[in-house]
Structure formats: C-alpha cells, structure tokens
C-alpha cells in the first residue's frame, strides 16, 4: 500500500445529510443540496466526504434504521440524485464514502416482516429470536443502548427479538451465512456505483455471545448515566468471531481498487486496535475516538498519542476524530478558542483526520428547546443530557433567513449565532476559524511531513503539548497551548526557524531561536531550519 494512498494522506469530512443543505424547502437537507455545496468542500480542501445514511428508512433513528439497503430515502432524493452527486464529486476529485448499517435493520424492512411472520419462515433466523426466560421475562439482562431492555416480546410468535438500539431496529443475525451474503451484495451494489468506501456502523456489535450469557454488572455505574452503563458489555459485543466478518467485508471491498473500510468502534485502545485484523486483514481505519473520550489536558493527550502510536500494529494506519453526529461538538466541549487549538491538533497528527461538518465554522453549544427535541435517545432517557440534537443542527451558509440552509422550517433550530457565524462571512475574514481550517488543510496537503511524516514527541510541561512531524529533510514543530495562560516552549539546543501558522493567524513567518512563546489558548506550527 503506497504511503500516499488517498485515505492515508487525505482529510475526511462527515456530512450529516439532514443538516447540510436543503434544496426543496422541506426543512431537511438532501442529496441535491450536498451537490450544490461540493465546491465549498473543494475550497475547504478536503479529500473525501462521508455521508451518514441516506437509505430508505422510516427515520426512527434518522436513517440508522434501514428499510432498503439499495434504495435512497425520498427525503434525501432519488437514485438519480445519488448518481449525479457521485459523478459531480468525482469530477472534482472528491471521494465519496457511505455509511453502512449492518448490525440492525428497520423493523419495516421486508426481511424483518418475513422473519416475524412465523417461527418457520425461512428468514426467521435472519434476526435474533429467543424464548423467554423461565420466569417469562426477557432471555437475559442485556440493555438497549438507548435505554430499557434490549428484548422485545412478539405476541404473534411467542418469542423475544433482540435490538441493541431502538425496538424499531432489530439486530440481524450475523452468524447466519445468508445474512452475510445479502449484506455483502448490498456493499457491492454501491461499490458498483462508484462509492469509494464505507464507514460501518457499530461494527464491534455484529456478533453476540453464542450462549447469550448475562452481562456482568458495572460497579462504577451512576444513575446519572445512560442505562446501558449498568452492565459491562462483555457478552453483547466485541466477540472474537466478529473479526471473521470484518475480514469478509474487507475482502468484498478488495474486489474493487483503492476502497476504504472504516469501522465505528467505541472500545478501549487495546481492544480497538484488534480491529485492524490479523495481518491487517480487518478495517483500514478502526475509528479512533480517543480525543473525544479523553479530558482536554495536555499531559493526558500527550500520553494517549504515545499509547495509540505504540498500540497500532506494524503497517496499520492511524486516524483521529474530534466529533461526530453522536458526540457533543468540540466547540461546545472546550470553548471557541480551544476549538482552534483542537483543529490544529487534528490536522497535524499522524493519521487520517475526520472533520465533522460545522466544526469548521465554529458551531458551539446549542440549546434545543424541549418542544424541538428530535433524538429518540433523548426521548427514551430524558433529562440525563444525552441528546444528540445539539450536534446535528443545520449548517450556516450565509446571513439570510435560516442561514441559507433551507427556505422552509428547519427540522432542528439553527444555532442563534448563525447570523454572524456563517461560511460567507467567515470566508472573508482572514482571522476566522474557517480561514484557519482552510490554511491547516492546505498546509497538510502541501507537506508530506504533516500527513504521512513521522510523529516525534517533544518534551513539554503543564498545558503545553508539543511534537515534531518529519519527512525527508522537512521538520515541523507543533506547539499547542491547551491552557488559558501564556506559555514558553524551550526547544532542544540549536532549534530555530520560523512560524508557519498560528491559530490566531497573525504570526506568519515570525522567526524563533531556541524557544517559542505562545499566548493563552494559542497553537503554532513552525518550520525548523536544517
Ligand atoms: C451509531 C450511530 O452513529 C448512531 O447515530 C446510531 O444511533 C447508532 N449507531 C445505531 O445505529
């Protein structure tokens, strides 16, 4: 695999399609809307776009409940719109990655209708059906990720079915070879249309314990947490046989040139890296969410980068993520100034970065009024702060009504700052966060040191996080002040050069010799002289 394969060098941009651009005034983003905005993505400098699910769906979980793996939901458009989108993306040199949701279907999927129709239906075993426990209750203690028991009683056939998420999202039985073949055919359907890869939803969930043993209790559980945390997910996910399935998916992708397999995996580092597979036969990129899960603290992040770099198997390629449609926005979590530092971190670490739409315009904390709540998880477990609506609000394009997102009523309210903080205004401002993102991405594109170069930690104390990126004779120092006070980084003797980029965008070409001083909440990239 050459060092310069697109998914290694490139930057991935995640679009939550409901919220990117509406083209027909129904208040929900769509494929034609995304197509209208491709030139923006080119101007931002990203290489690939990952679109959250656009398949036919009753939208109980906004598309993560698929009723037809080979169809486009009318909310998002038609197959023709899809073909036009992929053609327009490729014409601009952009890759297109789809979301694949293999763990569960919608309860409206024809497969499930057949499966639940009788115990003897040929598709009965395509889903996970079990008898009740001797007391008549659910077969075991597994909890749904969205709260409540993970088993739903089916009166007509007198058995329970398993759903790791909503009851409208029954889990497929991936131990059944027919299920596997049907799902691999769905992958091929999109690969044949030119799709460049997949982000696979909850890939570590696909295989469950063959004996359906109870999960052990989690002694650290607090009632303020989501109910799923009551038990440790020892038997309901991350089973050894899952790697066989991931390997099979990888082989399907390998029937086509240069496709990428990205796995959504929330597991501790040592478990996460097993998803690269034996001899790298698994996912190309098991999503690394460590920056989301670690406190925003320089020492902890420095340690985590070291641990991650050390844990990746030989030849495995790293990747980094700051946010997605399930996690509080980075700007909401660490504030506007540090969100700039975070952007510099994400775009200068070794490994493929995935950006989340809207972070580049600095969307921060958004309050969702009670009567506007959409997220089914929030509806199931209200009041615990679990809602994913705040990170799913519409993109801000210009200063017009609804930020140019829609001419109708948006499905979720926009962040009220949209009147000033929008693509059009920020593009003209040489010190805006959007300008910073553009410059960071351009710099990364220009210098192999920043994308595929070696990562070498630089000793630093307190709030300072520092490292070098090296390729050939090129050496960059990245110094990030994660604190709110000025800080000076003393470099090894003889290190001098000039600043290439500050997160404040006001120190270009400034020389330094032996040390660099950073203001509060500032990050710097500097080029070292030979
Ligand atoms: C992970 C997805 O990212 C999330 O949005 C979804 O609710 C669950 N998987 C279930 O598909």
TrEMBL record:
Q: Which GO terms describe its biological process?
A: oligosaccharide catabolic process
- Its domain of life? Bacteria
Q: Which SMART domains match?
A: Aamy
Q: Which UniProt keywords apply?
A: Glycosidase, Hydrolase
List GO molecular-function terms, semicolon-separated: alpha-amylase activity
One Pfam annotation, family name?
Alpha-amylase
Show where the Glycosyl hydrolase family 13 catalytic domain sits: 14-392
The family note in this entry says: Belongs to the glycosyl hydrolase 13 family.
Q: Which PANTHER family match?
A: ALPHA-AMYLASE FAMILY MEMBER (PTHR10357), NEUTRAL AND BASIC AMINO ACID TRANSPORT PROTEIN RBAT (PTHR10357:SF179)
This protein is called what? Answer: Alpha-glucosidase
């Amino acid at each position: 695999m050459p060092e310069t394969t697109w998914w290694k060098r490139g930057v991935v941009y995640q679009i939550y399609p409901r919220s990117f651009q509406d083209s027909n005034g129904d208040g929900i983003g769509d494929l034609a809307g995304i197509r209208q905005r491709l030139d923006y993505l080119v101007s931002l400098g990203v290489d690939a776009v990952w679109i959250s699910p656009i398949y036919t769906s009753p939208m109980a979980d906004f598309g993560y409940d698929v009723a037809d793996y080979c169809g486009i939901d009318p909310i998002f458009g038609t197959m023709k719109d899809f073909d036009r989108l992929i053609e327009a993306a490729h014409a601009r040199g952009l890759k297109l990655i789809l979301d694949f949701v293999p763990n569960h279907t919608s309860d409206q999927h024809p497969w499930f209708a057949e499966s639940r129709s009788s115990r003897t239906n040929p598709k009965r075993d395509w889903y996970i059906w079990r008898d009740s426990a001797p007391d008549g209750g659910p077969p075991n203690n597994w909890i749904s990720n969205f709260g409540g028991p993970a088993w739903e009683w089916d009166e007509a056939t007198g058995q329970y079915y398993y759903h790791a998420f909503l009851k409208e999202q029954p889990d497929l039985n991936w131990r059944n070879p027919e299920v596997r073949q049907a799902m691999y055919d769905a992958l091929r359907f999109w690969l044949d249309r030119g799709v460049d890869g997949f982000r696979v939803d909850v890939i570590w969930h696909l295989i469950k314990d063959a004996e359906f043993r109870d999960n052990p209790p989690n002694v650290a559980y607090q009632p303020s947490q989501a109910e799923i945390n009551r038990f440790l997910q020892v038997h309901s996910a991350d089973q050894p046989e899952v790697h066989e399935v991931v390997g099979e998916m990888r082989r399907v992708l390998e029937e086509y040139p240069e496709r990428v397999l990205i796995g959504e995996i929330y597991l501790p580092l040592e478990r996460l890296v097993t998803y690269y597979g034996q001899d790298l036969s698994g996912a190309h990129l098991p999503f690394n969410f460590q920056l989301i899960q670690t406190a925003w603290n320089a020492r902890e992040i420095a340690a985590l980068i070291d641990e991650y770099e050390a844990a990746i198997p030989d030849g495995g390629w790293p990747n980094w993520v700051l946010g997605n449609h399930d996690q509080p926005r980075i700007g909401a979590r660490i504030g506007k100034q540090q969100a700039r530092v975070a952007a510099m971190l994400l775009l200068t670490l070794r490994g493929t970065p995935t950006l989340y739409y809207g972070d580049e315009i600095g969307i921060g904390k958004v309050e969702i009024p009670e009567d506007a709540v959409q997220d089914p998880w929030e509806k199931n477990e209200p009041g615990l702060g679990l809602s994913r609506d705040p990170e799913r609000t519409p993109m801000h394009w210009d200063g017009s009504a609804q930020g140019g997102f829609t001419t109708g009523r948006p499905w979720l309210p926009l962040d009220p700052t949209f009147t000033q903080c929008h693509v059009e205004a920020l593009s003209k401002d040489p010190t805006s966060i959007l300008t910073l993102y553009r410059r960071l991405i351009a710099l990364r594109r220009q210098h192999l040191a920043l994308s595929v170069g070696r990562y070498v930690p630089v000793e630093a104390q307190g709030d300072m996080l520092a490292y070098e990126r090296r390729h050939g004779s090129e050496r960059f120092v990245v110094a990030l002040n994660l604190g709110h006070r000025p800080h000076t980084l003393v470099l090894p003797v003889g290190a001098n050069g000039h600043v290439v980029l500050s997160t404040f965008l006001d120190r270009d070409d400034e020389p330094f010799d032996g040390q660099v001083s950073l203001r509060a909440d500032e990050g710097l990239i500097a080029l070292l002289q030979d």
